[in-house]
Amino acid sequence: MKKYEIEIIVCCSTGCISLGGQEIYDELVRCIKEYNLDTNVKVKPTGCHGFCQTGPRLLINPEGVLYVYLKKSDVKTIVEQHLIGGKIVEKLTYKDPVTKKTVQKRDDINFYKHQVSITTNNCGKINPEDINDYLAVGGYESLKKVLTMEPEQVIQEIKTSRLRGKGGAGFPTGLKWSFLAQETSTPKYLICNGDEGDPGAFMDRTIMESDPQSIVEGMIIGAYATGATSGFVYVRAEKPLAASRIAIAIEQARKHGYLGSNILNSGLNFDIQVRKGAGAFVCGEETALMSSILGNRGSPRPRPPYPAKSGLWGKPTNINNVKTWATIPKIIDMSAENYAKIGTADSSGTAILCLSGNINNAGLIEIPMGTTIRTVVYDIGGGCPNGKKFKAIQIGGPSGGCIPEQYLDVKMIDTQIDFKSITTLGAIMGSGGLIVLDESTCLVDMAHYFIKFTQNESCGKCVPCRIGTRKMLHILDKIIMGQGSYEDLDELESLAYTIKNASLCGLGQTAPNPIISTLKYFRDEYEAHIKGICPALVCKNLITYHISAEMCVGCGICAKNCSVNAITGELKKTFQIDTNLCIKCGLCFSACPKNAIYKKTGGK
Amino acid sequence: MHSKTITEILVPFPRDEPSALIPVLQAVQSEYGYLSENNIYAISDHLNVPSSKIYGVTTFYAQFRLKPLGRHVINLCQGTACHVKGSEKLIPVFEQELKCKAGETTKDGKFTFNLVACLGACALSPVVNIDSDFYGNIKIADIKKILRKYD
Questions:
Q1: Which of A201, A225, A449, B113 has its CA 20 to 30 A from that of A100?
Q2: Which residues of A touch B141 (CB under 8 A)?
Q3: Residue A418 has pLDDT above 70, yes or no
């Protein structure tokens, strides 16, 4: 392959593309041609760099200079001043929201400093649609190594690494593989679970978009170790770029002889198909997912029998999450002992998390197991924006819970985001969505939001989940309307534990977690709502909008934005909101250029 | 109007193979925008799956539609990060602009307006997706401008 002096990496993942990344890439290619730099400079489209918030962005290597928040017109400036003039364009580099200082190099940015890259190592470095790029960074070397080992040795290696499934439940991967390997019935199947449906999670999407070959290689290694001959990658239809890139990766792997019959002359036969999910959260549950692959409604069934005994078409099947599969080649490459050294005594390796919500630096991160939440929120995430106060962190999506501030500050200095400590805290780590909530978030509204989601996604098969979640939603509806009672809180709690204990699958068993954790840590907010007060000024029925006479300049923008004509007044005089007509849509609140509109609660 | 007939769409899929049901429904819907009663009967014949079961499957999954769609499909994300960043407040703005409720299609058949659970672009919340375009960090004032891009 031709060597270039300079390589410019442009992120072309869903996040950056939505912010105009494709335009930046096209303009860069055009400028490089225009200035005849194409013999020296290579422009490479890659997957996600993790720090999605700063997109569109480009990275100039080998210098490691990062340009962020780009517009089309900036590209020419960078080409002229940086590539030709040799001077870094300071104003387009990253400015730390906390220190307010500019940081020129990617590796000096706090967001990246505290991270380690194992599973996501290739993300943002290689062109995900070109297998040659993957091969150039050592792709498929792990497979070649594995093919010289005995299948039992491969399973032992994964056991030694202490890798646990990264989909949320944390079951030891090596042990799971050994169950499939023991089965004598054939054919055996492998499934890659890419049905990432938790709101707030985009780790699996990012890996499928940025480094799909790692998943394919991981599955081939799994096939060799367990004797499976056929695999399925199940991707959510809502993530179309991920589905198309994994399909391209499979096609290219097949052309290069890594999939199909007699792979690399080893006698191994294995091939993979892509199946697109059709929009059902419950299909992330393994038995529901298999039912969906078979063309049925995605309803879960009781276990046992576990998939290793009876999975697809009643045959032995092994399911692992996208992140787990993508980690396999890396473990083989770095050795199981070295992987096991990362993290804590209980949880080895890394956690891949998505940081979003009220946070300065949002994006995808990979950290050693055992990192404190404080490091994630403050050192990597840079805290809450606009000087707002941190309130809680929501972990694990609809199956998880809210962890309050006191555990960051006092008791939980050692609070670690590994599987054990999160479980004792009352919130499961889940697949890894972390949503930071500041003081403007109402925790009762949050619980209501999640129950509405799980209620909607309940498949309806078992009574505790189908009827129980609906009853919890009714009670929460009453509470956010200010019509709740103290008895409601007790009933909510008792319902929550019943649903947790009696539901058939993971969806129902974890659905009450948002309620259990908020009732435990934020009971005072529930009680305030019963008294007609929403302390965070979120719940519509408990707030009213007003205009401050001191701050209003009488511009009338609020009245223009009001869809129900509830705002009246004369230009240059203080406007008035008729609280009886107001539907509390909040349009005027966002539109006011002087922040003269404020909310009140409890003042009925 | 459609480049393929239902028979042509079904050709690549094996006959009497119930496990192909979801990919078949996806292929038919991507061509026609929805699943008509007649097409469901054709699928039922081809795969040897009762139409009652197909009805059960189509109504189970959020992706499938039994009514025609607008020319452009708007998916407004209501995921957790978007919710925290006020995506709920964008719903009435879209409804006002489009003059149709969430889950409905505009009278002129131009837009279908859906609410979805999570588009997985949480770092850019709030997010809306129209056909294959994603728009991140949207504000109320952007909505008119975004909608104007579509004929």
A1: A201
A2: 591
A3: no
